[in-house]
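User: My collaborator sent over this chain with a note saying "see what the structure looks like." That's all I know about it. Can you take a look?
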Amino acid sequence: MTPTRREALRVGALGLVALCSCQAGRRRHQADVRRVLQRVDARASVDGAGVHLRRSLGGAALAMVDPFLLLDEIRTDTAADLGAGFPDHPHRGFETVSYVLEGAFAHADSVGNHGRIADGGAQWMTAGRGIIHREIPTPSARGSLWGLQIWVNLPAHRKWTAPRYQDLEPSRITRAQLGDADVRVVAGTVAGHRGPIDGIVTAPTLLDLALPAGGRAEHALPGDHAAVIYGLAGQVAIGSAATTVAAGQLAVLGPGARVTIGSTTGGRVLLLAAAPIREPVARRGPFVMTTDDELRQAFADYRARRLRTAESLGASPHTSARRRRRALAMTDTELKLMAAAASIGLSRSPTIG
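Assistant: Without extra context I'll predict from the sequence alone. Here is the result:
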């Protein structure tokens, strides 16, 4: 904005310099604030063995925001909506994140890991060169289940690493204050408080922010990181344009150094950000690779039972053969059904990043 003649006469030469500097700084600040490029409404879907969920990322409307491949929200007070959960299934070439707000996910895998993610806990699993696991959602004492599942891609040179788990009890999730927001920091750093997830190649940020009515928060992010915000409850306004995002909506953010979030009535959101990989993506069902040949090889390895051995998965030699056999019961028919349910195939869907 150019100062008016009246303003110039009032403040004088020195004051005019200060006024112009202030206005230029304000314009730079606004230019640094990320704006919403796209909003996507989560769509009802059924996955696994009859689990009802809402998918905002990883479907026909938006296939990915590099490096994020999938974002599902599971929220229900009806046990029948959970079906038989997510029985034994393979993964290769990416990472899965489970964040449970209420209830629990019981999990076990082909390398002998097992446990329970419950009531505010999280798990970051690097599938790497291959793993077969199961996740069974379990309602809370009052019969509710609320959780999110996120898929994050791996660069080509990291798709063949050994599987790795980071299991986080609720007490290990970092708590911080960001402006008026109460924040649970799963990954990344807020006001000097670092989240517990570490060693992830895409340097992710995963924040659960709760804003009171009239609240506001601002968070700095690396300018080249991709970022999305998913509405968990209430409604928030994002960026200088105050673009509204309600529960069940995903907002894809443009470039910038800062994210600003406000709410007149109160709201809760998930903020995800990470460094984009910028490599080709070939994905189908439970596998995410760089080329179609690698993808076909992943299916061939599974059918040939090469994904089912301790050697291929880097399992501990102390993991019993009986335990591995019990964890690896998926048939080829089930694998084909899973790939079909993903509705992605080898084609390229709408993508950002």
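A starting point for your reply to your collaborator: Residues 5-32 form the longest helix (28 residues).
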